Amino acid sequence: MILAHGRSAHSYAANEGLSFALVGCGGRGAAFLADKGQYGSLFDHGRVVAMCDVNQQRAAASFKKFPDVPKFEDYRVML
């Protein structure tokens, strides 16, 4: 059995990936999708499973980046 070093920031089991839905895909949401941050992209360890924005025009650019992900206008329907 091989264990990851306890101090490794990127130690995780294969099935511990993060699945998340994004509410608000224009403006700050688009910045979130583009952010690589100190530890790399969230998408290195997770996946987008749904996207929601009431302003479809503003969210269009973000929606195009994830063509196979379901899109919604109402977060209550998405949930």
What's the arrangement of secondary structure elements?
Elements (H helix, E strand, L loop, with lengths): L17 E6 L4 H7 L11 E7 L3 H10 L5 E2 L2 H4 L1
Parallel strand pairs: 1-2, 2-3
Task: Give an overview of the whole structure.
The structure is a single chain. The protein has 79 residues and is of the alpha/beta class. It has helices at 28-34, 56-65, 75-78, and strands at 18-23, 46-52, 71-72. The chain contains three helices and three strands; from the N terminus they run βαβαβα. The longest helix has 10 residues, at 56-65. Strands 1-2-3 form a three-stranded parallel sheet. Helix content is 27%, strand content 19%. It has a domain at 24-78.
Describe what is shown at a glance.
By secondary structure, this protein is α/β, with parallel strands linked by helices.
